[in-house]
Amino acid sequence: MTIYADYQRDRIGWFFGLSGGQLMFLALASLPAFWAISRGAWFSAFLFALVWLFLLAITVVPVRGRSATGWVFASTMYAVGGLLGWTSFRARPPRAAPRTSTPPISPGAAGHQDPRRPAARLPAAAGRSDPR
């Protein structure tokens, strides 16, 4: 038996899979083009139609399950929730007391040497003899 993890049911939409909000947005966004056509401003109508095609693409084409307008809405809501402190992340205190038996060893930090290791010797400069 094969199980598909990426399977999703189709969304129910009013018109070619569009939700009501998407359909209203695209309908309202098409009004300037129709207004320019009624005035006989063909170049303006062409430009408005190009803008409408761009809006159609960012409204309808999904990227990782959401359209671009869906991503903007979700990102805005996430930012507002974060500013109001509604995020799901809550820092918890540590469960165990920290060990204080030995300080952490950072070799070379602030000129300190690990007492358990021998001092590191730097290589001799080229052309000079090693004083060992």
Highlighted features:
single chain, about 130 residues, mainly alpha, 3 helices
Low-confidence stretches: none
Fraction in beta strands: under 5%
Average pLDDT number? 77
Number of strands: 0
Overall geometry comes to: elongated
Q: First CA to last CA: what distance?
A: 72 Å
Biggest sheet features: none
Account of the 3D structure:
This protein is mainly α and 132 residues long. Helices cover 42% and strands 0% of the residues. It contains three helices and no strands. The protein has helices at residues 20-39, 42-60, 68-83. α1 runs antiparallel to α2 (42-60). The relative contact order is 0.06. The model has no long low-confidence stretch (mean pLDDT 77).
Task: Itemize the secondary structure elements and their pairings.
Blueprint: H1 20-39, H2 42-60, H3 68-83
Helix pairs in contact: 1-2
Short description:
Helices cover 42% and strands 0% of the residues. The protein has three helices and no strands.
